[in-house]
Write a structure and sequence with these properties.
The protein is of the alpha/beta class. It has helices at residues 21-39, 70-81, 98-105, 128-140, 154-157, 167-193, 216-234, 240-243, 246-253, 296-305, 323-331, and strands at residues 6-12, 41-47, 84-90, 115-122, 144-145, 150-153, 158-159, 162-163, 199-200, 207-210, 257-263, 266-276, 279-287, 313-319, 335-342, 345-351. The strands form 3 sheets. An 8-stranded mixed β-sheet has the order 9-10-11-12-13-14-16-15, with helices on both faces. Strands 1, 2, 3, 4, 5 and 6 form a 6-stranded parallel β-sheet that branches. A two-stranded antiparallel sheet has the order 7-8.
Length: 354
């Protein structure tokens, strides 16, 4: 699970001319902005009418992810990029607007494992029946509705024809956002497992994906856990992974192709690769100390070697006294290079089959 900033879509669902929805949406965005910044979230206001979605006109089932029309593809990208949603909805005849139902029906996997909060408005029921109606639909799409909601009775929120909710409404909105952020971060591992670039890992429930700069905090922690043992074995603290700050790690994550193995939001292991001329360099092979001996290191090494197609050889190095590492690498066909040991470091290589 990364610590990247979350992207929260605030969707105003009414398209009726003169509707109150845009005023509610503006109030909500202004009210939540300070809290969103403190929680590490970006708010993205959007009016459903600006999507220009006709009634569902796609031939393929939404679960396939096959979208023929540009309006669908655009909507798919918007929803895919979001980490959570707030639907600002009126109540029409005991239910949600057809515009919201239609927008939900267009997509499938893009919605899965993301939290959704509701800000409803109406007369007698303050829009709460629309929320109950919508929850039946969103749970089918594997959206996760929050317990916190904001329900605004229009008569209580109007001041001389101006929308001006009470302080309790702002407090409720702040509580909803805080819950949405917590749930979104908790659900991140489920979302990541469903990404196209995620592959099944060697341990039950684990998956691998490419790491990026946003993963620097987790990588920093893993490095320090793993290289303490190397420092003790080689009787030196002059090991770069022990001294790198998150900013240092963020910088090299942008330059190296790094694969991370995850389970339930925990980074279990990683390895990085980079081509230099005819050589593929492999480095920073790390496995959480409590998971050693389960084949994770060998699996990560094989994943890294896949990037060596077209190269002449694969090159890596380890500490001269890191006997566990040397046993692993030599068992996988690596041999020390001539004059390989220098300053307590051994370089090894393996030819890439033609």
């Amino acid at each position: 699970m990364t610590t990247k900033r979350l992207r929260i879509l605030l969707l105003v669902c009414s398209t009726r001319p003169g509707a109150l929805g845009p005023d509610v949406g503006r109030w909500l965005t202004e009210t939540l902005a300070p809290g969103a910044e403190a929680l590490g979230a970006d708010l993205v206001p959007l009016a459903i009418g600006d999507l220009h979605l006709p009634f569902l006109d796609e031939e393929e089932h939404p679960s396939t992810g096959v979208h023929q029309h540009e309006h669908t593809r655009r909507w798919s990208r918007i929803v895919e990029d979001a980490d959570g949603f707030v639907f600002v909805t009126p109540e029409y005849n005991y239910g949600m607007p057809a515009t919201l139902k239609n927008a939900l029906d267009y997509l499938g996997p893009e919605w899965a494992w993301k939290p959704v909060g509701f800000v409803s408005y109406g007369h007698t029921s303050a829009g709460t029946r629309a929320v109950q109606h919508a929850k039946q639909v969103v749970t089918t799409l594997r959206l996760v509705p929050l317990g916190s909601t904001v329900a605004i009775r229009i008569a209580d929120a109007m001041r001389e024809d101006r929308f001006a909710p009470e302080a309790r409404h702002a407090d409720a909105a702040g509580g909803m956002l805080a819950e949405l952020v917590r749930v979104s971060r908790a659900l991140a591992p489920l979302r990541e497992r469903g990404h196209a670039d995620a592959v099944e890992g060697p341990l039950p429930g684990s998956y691998a994906r490419r790491l990026g700069p946003d993963d620097a905090p987790e990588v920093t922690v893993l490095q320090r856990c793993c290289w303490v043992e190397e420092a003790l074995a080689n009787d030196t603290l002059a090991i770069p992974p022990l001294h790198e700050s998150p900013d240092d790690v963020r910088a090299w994550l942008a330059d190296w192709h790094t694969t991370g193995l995850w389970r339930d939001g925990r980074l279990l292991g990683m390895v990085r690769t980079r081509r230099t001329g005819a050589d593929l360099h492999i480095g920073r092979l790390a496995v959480a100390p409590d998971l050693r001996g389960l084949g994770v290191g060998r699996w990560l090494l094989r994943q890294a070697e896949e990037a060596g197609k077209g190269c002449r050889r694969v090159v890596l190095f380890t500490g001269a006294a890191s006997h566990r590492n040397l046993t692993l690498y030599q068992g996988q066909g690596y041999v020390p290079l001539p004059g390989a040991q220098e300053d307590g470091v051994v370089s090894l290589a393996k030819a890439v089959p033609a």
